[in-house]
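Contributing new records

If you add data, match the layout below exactly. Sequence lines come first and carry their own label; structure lines follow with theirs. Keep one chain per record. Anything else will be rejected by the validation script.
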Amino acid sequence: MSKDRPNQVLKLGDIVLILMVIIGLGFLSFNLYGNDQGNKEVMIIGQNFRGVYPIEKNRKIEVKGPLGDTIVVIEDGKAWIEYSPCREKICMKMGKISRVGQQVVCVPNRVLVEIEGRNGDIDAVSR
């Protein structure tokens, strides 16, 4: 006695549903990862220092910390720690950052570098 198998062909509704999911995932991915072109700034926080700089303007900033001066570079839309007097130099090895929310931190010298984005329709509560 053989069992009849139902026909396993995709129907029009299945294809439409799959396409809608793919389009939705593409839209979500673009909004989360690809739409980073807003007004980005580099926020630098030190022991007795706080500065916010546009990421488009190239510059070097010296930030004083308990171990000495940390040099932060902003160039070509990226920011990084070029030099720090800390022992392990992990902050220098973290590389360049350019996307909103990325950070480079020198814990021993108490320096934080973060990319921030400004968007007119986001308030402090939703952040």
